[in-house]
Amino acid sequence: MDDTRYYGSANARDDRPSGNAPDAFDQLLGSLDGLPGVTSTLPTTIDLVQPVVGHNTTYVVRTFRQQFQTEPDDANKRRTWFEDTLFIKFIEGTRVVRLPLPEKVITAAIRQRESLTSRSRKKLAKAAAADRRKRGIVPNTEGLERHRARRKKHARRS
Asked: How far from each other are the two terminal CA atoms of the chain, in whole angstroms?
């Protein structure tokens, strides 16, 4: 599939007159907006201006959450889940880029951010521990040892 057809193009012709057929961004947005079982946020506009040169970049962000349900199973229970779609509009001068981001892309971005947060915390903790060792501060590991022993004891019971 041609990516520019699904995600829109990266030029100013994205804001077409109403006589032209809607692109995939508009089709997906139109199919979710007002649909039963769909909840959405209001569009959020973020203007980033570089102070010295006055270069302006605008982002418009809106999220839709769609509810899905399975047919009842043998126990007459339905499984319910939600999927999010994030719509981003990037405006820079005369250039407009519009991206609908599906659930898998959002999940990957969140997972990567959490991974970076975890790595950053580990680096800071190691640096702080090295600094404390350098200053001669010895950590009190007695409580940690008790906790590990209790955890090990409970793990054997299971």
From this structure: 51
Pairing mode, strands 80-92 and 56-69: antiparallel
The pLDDT tens digits for 70-91 are: 877 777 788 888 999 999 999 9
Q: How many CB atoms lie within 10 A of CB 1?
A: 6
Whole-angstrom distance, CA of residue 102 vs CA of residue 68: 15
**What residues make up the domain containing 97?**
1-101
Closest by Cα among 61, 62, 128 to 91: 61
Domain boundary residue, one of 62, 80, 101: 101
- pTM (two decimals): 0.64
Report the C-alpha gap between 96 and 108 in whole angstroms: 24
